[in-house]
UniProtKB/TrEMBL annotation:
Family: Belongs to the leucine-binding protein family.
PROSITE patterns for this protein: PROKAR_LIPOPROTEIN
Organism: [Actinomadura] parvosata subsp. kistnae
Signal peptide (UniProt feature, chain positions): 1-24
Recorded superkingdom: Bacteria
Keywords of this entry: Signal
Protein name according to UniProt: Branched-chain amino acid ABC transporter substrate-binding protein
């Protein structure tokens, strides 16, 4: 790539910015805070002052997973509300800088570098997607920049010990798979399952967890078809799966392909399997284009409150969310669950940051790995944030839901997979 000539002084400034990231908390540095003395001395304060905190997020605002672009709208609405009405987080106003990677890992690396080296963010709060997060976590951990509550459920974020600066938030895909396996063992103990999955770490993680959870049962996976995120359509894969005559279809996809799979299933009147769609493709925005009449009885699982569910009509947090979305994100539809997801994730960050012993990067890193029964009001009752040494999974509880009428309906109890199935991998 050709670099235009610039003056030596400008080059020096760029070099300082690029190498920044380990400011002494007791002085100097562009983001030093007076509060970060004593036990916090020498820790990183880039991107945080006594009055401000700067966060960076990376999302596919364009490309095949652009439906997820609604998430940062909910996050920004939460931070705008907290800034305007609560004085920020710990007295610090939050600036949230969002970058678009188009769901392309090389672009995610480029944007991570830009956020860390040019924008000088305190932390990366959410990089969306397993491929993008996997592409960036070596860099963020080398730079010792917190990469917290990444928007992907890959199990590696909670089991890996070489990347202490990166941690997930949502239930990992293996835990989610266990929930579906438990459901089938109880409701369809001799089910024959066909699986459509994304051919990357995301799809393979959930599929692998599903197969392991079925070991020793009579439930069988009888057909598998994968797709690439660059594929224009999954119709060929769906035709092949239909030939298996399976009585269950497990749909492990991102929104674009989840919608295509639901539509293909609806068109094939000769095949009528129980359709299970994974959580990340279970939004109303995925189902609506297919036609609600065509997705009746579809099953999924969730862990946060659905803004379309009248169960939460009088819930204080849901009422606050809808009011503040209208106030701070007037062009966004508060009934889109991805906005709610963003609100819940931002609220979780708020709790973790306030619990940090030091207002530093190290303080945040340690806080997110020491969460003890932290309640976040947008999560389902019974779902809390819990992490500890050797357990890097903040949320491992989910509840099943079935689509009925024009919305999802919860059924059964919240399933804590730690208690029901033991530690991940155990």
């Amino acid at each position: 790539m050709r670099v235009p000539a610039i003056g030596c002084a400008a080059l020096l400034l760029l070099a300082v910015a690029a190498c920044g990231g380990r400011d002494a908390a007791t002085g100097g540095g562009t983001g030093g805070t007076a509060a970060a003395g004593g036990q916090c001395a020498g820790q990183q304060t880039t991107g945080i002052t006594d009055k401000t905190i700067k966060l960076g997020g990376i999302y596919p605002l364009s490309g095949p997973a652009s439906a997820y672009g609604d998430i940062p709208k909910g996050i920004k609405a939460y931070f705008d509300y907290v800034n305007a009405e609560k004085g920020g987080i710990g007295g610090r106003k939050v600036e949230f800088v969002v970058r678009d990677d188009g769901y392309q890992p090389p672009k995610a690396v480029e944007e991570a570098r830009r956020l860390v080296e040019q924008e000088q963010v305190f932390a990366l709060f959410q990089t969306l997607g397993t491929p993008s997060t996997a592409a960036t976590w070596d860099y963020t951990n080398q730079r010792k920049v917190p990469q917290v509550f990444v928007a992907t459920g890959a199990s590696i974020w909670g089991t890996d010990t070489a990347h202490p600066w990166t941690i997930g938030w949502q239930p990992n895909y293996i835990s989610e798979a266990r929930v579906y396996a438990a459901y089938l063992k109880k409701e369809k103990p001799e089910a024959k399952v066909a699986v459509l999955y994304q051919n990357d770490d995301f799809g393979k993680d959930l599929l692998g967890g599903f197969k392991r959870a079925l070991e020793g049962t009579k439930v069988q996976v009888v057909a598998e078809q994968s797709y690439e995120v660059s594929d224009p359509s999954i119709d060929p894969q769906m035709r092949n799966l239909a030939e298996s005559k399976a009585d269950v279809l497990l749909n492990v996809t991102t929104p674009k392909f989840g919608s295509q799979a639901l539509a293909a299933d609806a068109k094939n009147t000769k095949w009528n399997p129980l359709h299970i769609v994974n959580n990340v493709a279970a939004s109303i925005t995925v189902l609506k284009p297919v036609g609600f009449e065509n997705v009746q009885g579809v099953v999924s699982a969730t862990y946060y409150k659905d803004p379309n569910d009248p169960t939460w009509a009088n819930d204080p947090e849901m009422q606050l969310y809808k009011q503040k979305m209208q106030q701070y994100a007037p062009g966004a539809d508060a009934n889109v669950p991805y906005h709610t997801f963003g609100w819940a994730a931002a609220s979780s960050f708020h709790k973790a940051m306030e619990a940090a012993a030091c207002p530093t990067r190290e303080g945040l890193r340690d806080s997110v790995r020491n969460l003890k029964g932290v309640k976040v009001d947008m999560l389902l009752p019974g779902v809390t944030l819990d992490t500890a040494q050797g357990d890097g999974f903040p949320i491992e509880s989910m509840q099943l839901m079935r689509f009925k009428g024009q919305r999802w309906e919860l059924f059964g109890d919240v399933i804590d997979t730690r208690k029901e199935f033991g530690p991940l991998g155990g």
